[in-house]
Structure formats: structure tokens, C-alpha cells
Amino acid sequence: MIGAVKPTIVENTMKNDVILQVQDLSIVYQTPRGDVMATTDVSFDLRKGETMALIGESGSGKTTLSLSFIRMLPNSARVTKGKILYSRDGVTRDILEMSDNEIRRFRWSDCAMVFQGAQNAFNPVLRVRQQFADTAAAHGKTDKAWIKQRTLELFKLVRLDPERVYEAYPHEMSGGMRQRSLLALGVLLDPQIVILDEPTTALDILTQRAIIDVLKEMQQRLNFSIIFISHDLALAAEMASRVATVYAGEIVEEGSVEDIFYRHRHPYTLGLIRSVPRLSRQQDELMSIPGEPPNLITPPSGCKFHPRCMFASDKCKVDPPPLVEYEPGHRAACWHTDKVAAARIAFAAQD
Ligand SMILES: Nc1ncnc2c1ncn2[C@@H]1O[C@H](COP(=O)(O)OP(=O)(O)OP(=O)(O)O)[C@@H](O)[C@H]1O
Ligand SMILES: [Mg+2]
Question: Using a CB cutoff of 8 Å and minimum separation of 24, what contacts does 311-320 make?
């Protein structure tokens, strides 16, 4: 058992139902070519039981951000600014200030993460049950009867045949079965937060569907919060109650699913949504976002999106737009939100 630790408690300034509060977080990767600014001034709240989706192109900084929540960033990464406050049972701590012992307990017991492409995360030479027992033991839970009962219960919850999977080796299971087992392992110690980084990317569409259904059911039963990272906007819309659009390491828009999909105010969100094919849309109406994501060692001045933005003005090249709240809970960082809104309405009229 990991020894008792004195938690690094901080004053709770968060609203009642907020369990994770990211404040002005900045992260760089130190490389021989210079610092990669992978996360810049990110702030957001995660509430109890909600699902927050992070959407954005490859390289926008989604994985970096979520790795920081469990302090699993690679050695070359430095948090240069900010706080990550975490609250449970009336006690609030800064994850970045936790001791090594505290953070070890925090992982799995408070916050679990299923990584990108994690279907192969199981050790191939150990039976699945052993990997559940090892995880429990690493967190001081050694009661064999409890572990077995909890493991079987979770297999049932993720709709696996409990007895069969309990004795199985990972190679005896399909990709979808392994992904379900991983979800079960993720919630073994009843975490408050589960981070899912592209949880279904490697799976075929029917298996994806089944995993999403299982996830929803698990969340209803166990009431954890989810941070859901996906390239797939339809999946994000289905899973999440709130969505944050990430561009070049910044949150450029955040709001409810309806805000983001039907009332977006940021041109990057507009671009992401317009670039998704729809049955009702002609191929030539599909709009891809021109250009490439920026180099994060020397990002563009002003608004980082301006070189790719159809609404950019001289001001955008110089002044970074602040993240402004337009409706309660709906924030966007753009100098031309009115033009984006007009374009969105014009596009919707064509659909
Ligand atoms: N270990 C590293 N060293 C240097 N730069 C890194 C490292 N890991 C990520 N980066 C850079 O940090 C930025 C953010 O990367 P990150 O992996 O967080 O993006 P992502 O949104 O998760 O992308 P994807 O959708 O492809 O998974 C990118 O510019 C990436 O090249
Ligand atoms: Mg990633």
C-alpha cells in the first residue's frame, strides 16, 4: 500500500459541481529547434457527470492538454504557467502541486485515461484478470473477493461475457473486446474523471457504435465525468454535453453542443463543421479549411488562425482576440464573430 500522504490542499474557489478547473495553463515542449507552444493560456471547468469534448485538427494540442491532467507529459514538456485544480469530497488540490505519491493515487482512483490507440495496452503474457488485480493492488486494494466481484461486475456492464474474459489472454479477444475491457479497467477504482483520447478510432463503425453505447451506459450508472477527444465531430456531438474547439494549443471556442454546432462564432469551428460531408450537401459545397496548422515554435502573430481565416482583417494580424462570453457558457475568441454568424446562417439556408 502506498503510504499515507498529506494532501496539498488549496482554497476552493470553484462552483459546487465543478470537479476540475484548468486556469491559464501553458505547456511547452523543449526541442533542439526551440520551444513548441503546445498549450497556451487554456482555462475551462469540468462539472460532475458531464462530458466535455475536445475537437480540433491533428497537432492542435488535445493530447498534450489531457496528459497534463494526470501529469503524464513526456520529460521534454514544461508547464510554464497555470493551475489544474481538482476537487473531491470537499477537498481541492492543485494537480501540478501534488507529491509523487499523491499523483500515483490520483491516477486511476480519481482520474483514468484511455489513450489513443490503446487497444494494445494490455500485457500480452498476462491474463486479463491479472491486469485488473495488479491495478487494484497498486492502489492498496488486495481483497481478492472484492477484486473478482468488481471485475466481473464491470465486464457485465461493458457487455462482455464475464467468465470468459476473466480467464482470457488479450490475444484471445477482438479489438472491440479489448477496448471494452480497457474501459472496465479504467473505472475499476471508481474515478470521477475518465479521459478518452480517440477511444474508437481503430475500430470499425459497428464496433465503434457498440463502444459508444456502452460508454453512455457506464456513465449513467457510475456518474463519472468524461473528457472526450475525437476527430469525429458526429461522435463528439453525440457523446458530449459541452464542446471546446482547440486550435494551435488554445481553446478558441467553447459552449454547449448546440452552441458549437448550431450557433458557432469562431471561423475555425465553422470550418471544422463545414468540412464534414453530409448526405444533403453536394460535394462542391464541402469546404475544407485552407492551409496547414501553424508551426507552434513560431506561431503567427495576433490571432493564430488569421493566415487561414476568410474573415481576417489587419487587426487580426496584430491583436490576439480574447475569449469572450457571448451567451452564458458560450465563449469564442474572434474579432469578427458577427461575420461568422452571418456566414453560418447563409450556409444553413443553403443546406
Ligand atoms: N514529445 C513532443 N516533443 C515535441 N513536440 C511535441 C511532442 N508531442 C507533441 N508535440 C507537438 O505539440 C503539439 C500538440 O500535439 P498533440 O499531440 O497534443 O496534438 P493532438 O491534438 O493530440 O493531435 P492528434 O489529433 O494528432 O492526436 C503538436 O505541434 C506536436 O507536434
Ligand atoms: Mg492526440
Answer: 311/267, 311/336, 311/339, 311/340, 311/343, 312/336
The closest alpha carbon to 69, from 118, 9, 20, 13, belongs to: 20
| Cβ 299 under 6 angstroms from ligand 1 | no
What residue spans define the domains of the chain? 12-240, 265-350
The pTM of the full predicted model, rounded to 2 decimals, is 0.92
**CATH T-level assignment (fold) for domain 12-240:** Rossmann fold (3.40.50)
CA–centroid distance, 67 to ligand 2, in Å, is 10
64-82 tens-digit pLDDT: 999 999 999 999 999 999 9
**What is the identity of the amino acid at 187?**
V
pLDDT tens digit sequence for 132-188: 999 999 999 999 999 999 999 999 999 999 999 999 999 999 888 898 999 999 999
Decide: 267 in ligand 1 pocket, CB within 6 A: no
As a whole number, the mean pLDDT across the chain is 90
- Cα of 76 vs centre of ligand 1, distance in Å, is 12
Q: Order of strands across the sheet with 77-88?
A: 9-10, 91-94, 77-88, 18-31, 34-47
Greatest alpha-carbon span in the chain: 67
